[in-house]
Amino acid sequence: MDNELSRLEAQLEQLIGLYEAGKRERRELAERVVALEAHNRRLSEKVALATEKLETILERLPEA
């Protein structure tokens, strides 16, 4: 009986450890998603600005 309780206790501790590790990983991934979304927005803004500048330059070129 004591052996089985010890085994179950060890399994429960392992399960709790895996659960905690999963929570940490999920939190880290959520933070990474937020950071990558912000980075993506900044890159999109840069692309939009570059597009505007290029369109302005193209409008100034004489037509051939």
Automatic annotation (TrEMBL):
It comes from Azoarcus taiwanensis. It comes from the Bacteria. Residues 5-60 form a coiled coil. This is Cell division protein ZapB. Keywords: Coiled coil. The keyword Coiled coil applies.
